[in-house]
Amino acid sequence: MPELPEVECVARALRQALIGRRLDRLDVRFAGVLRPSAAAVRAAAVGRTLVAVHRRGKYLILTFAAGARRQMASVAREGAGRDETHVMVHLRMTGQLFCDPQFRPDAHTHLALDFEGARVWYRDIRKFGRFTVVEDARTPRALAHVGQDMLEIGFAAWRERVASRRAPIKAVLLDQGVAAGIGNIYADETLFGARVHPLTPAAALDGAALRRIYGQARAVLRLAIRHGGTTYLNFLDFRGRPGNFRRKLRVYQREGEPCPRCATPIERRVVAGRSTRLCPRCQPQPPA
DNA sequence: ATAGCGCCCTGGTGGC
DNA sequence: TGCCACCAGGGCGCTA
Fold first, then answer.
1. Nearest residue, CA→C1' of B5
2. pTM above 0.85, yes or no
3. Strands A130-134 and A34-35, bridge-based pairing
4. Which of residues 135-164 of A touch strand B (CB under 7 A)?
């Protein structure tokens, strides 16, 4: 499942491969992923040049400017161009956005984005992903409820949002309104690294534990980015290759295996409605 | 304000 | 071997 590191890898690849290129054609095989409609997404993107790719949490925002490449210089000078348009992309569970000349579209391939000189595919087995036309790149209404990116937010701001919550810390880490980008895999890895039980109420954590969680979250996200993300189920990078962070996972998908620190078998349980892996010895249950 | 749940959707799994 | 109920899971909308 793409979380912050996987989306960051996609964002970097999109910037490198496509900035300055015009989208000539959008081939729609399944319109259900396009909001509010295929026509609206076409109007916002086709015939226009990709000028920026922003990421916030697991959201990508593609910014297009009218017409040809030479207009980009003026767009860059003026900052936010007057006639920029924006398409927000969320890959959800199984969305894949990639550029691979060898790829042949299958039943799960919903879009072909034909940029000048590069064909980009959108494939999504469960069809949960969305391309949504939004009105601005930085703070579209659609992201009003989404917090700062987990790699952008400072400790003080994060702590302020976390420390007042009585919900289990794992639920708070998954709450995209607190800070954006952490999903199930990195929540488990973060709490293992910080030696905190996922059921611990956030408000019950002391300053040292909050500091460890914040530091671990950022460290594990950055490490995963360096390794090209985690491939679980079907995440592939922009060139159709699997990320190799999965080997580095210490608890996720490892129930029954020995804890890498103390060899106690990793447990699985349900927290906040999500399957959760933890070491019962390194992450002792908080007193009830 | 906050928490919990059902929904979307499909492939994989386990039971019979 | 075949069929099928069930599960995973991010975000959103609804309810309590």
1. A273
2. yes
3. parallel
4. 164
* Rounded CA separation A38/A54 (Å): 22
Residues of A noted as catalytic? 2-3, 58, 274
Could you tell me the CATH number of the domain that includes residue A25? 3.20.190.10
- Shared domain for A126 and A161, answered yes or no, is no
Residue nearest to nucleotide B7 (CA to C1'): A128
Strand B and chain A: which residues 89-108 have CB closer than 7 Å?
Answer: 107-108
Whole-number distance in Å between A231 CA and B4 C1': 30
Q: How far is the CA of A160 from the C1' of B6 (A)?
A: 31
> Which range has the worst mean pLDDT, A19-23, A112-116, A237-241?
A237-241
Q: Is the CB of A274 under 7 A from strand C?
A: yes
The secondary structure element, H or E, covering residue A226 is: helix A207-226
Residue A190 domain boundaries: 155-278
User: Cα-atom radius of gyration of chain A, to the nearest Å?
Assistant: 20
Q: Would you tell me how many other CB atoms lie within 10 Å of the CB of residue A61? A: 22
Residues A28 and A119 both lie in one domain: yes
For A65-76, the pLDDT digits (tens) are 997 554 555 555
Evaluate if the CB of A209 falls below 7 Å from strand B.
no
Encode pLDDT of A152-208 as tens digits. 999 999 999 999 888 899 999 999 999 999 988 889 999 999 999 998 999 999 999
- Contact partners, residue A95, CB within 8 Å, separation at least 6: A2, A89, A122, A123, A124, A128, A129
Tokens encoding A222: 């950055």
Task: Evaluate whether residue A284 is within a structural domain.
Answer: no
Please report, rounded to whole angstroms, the spatial distance between the CA atom of protein residue A181 and the C1' atom of nucleotide C5.
Answer: 33
CATH number, residue A250: 1.10.8.50
| A190 and A249 belong to one structural domain | yes
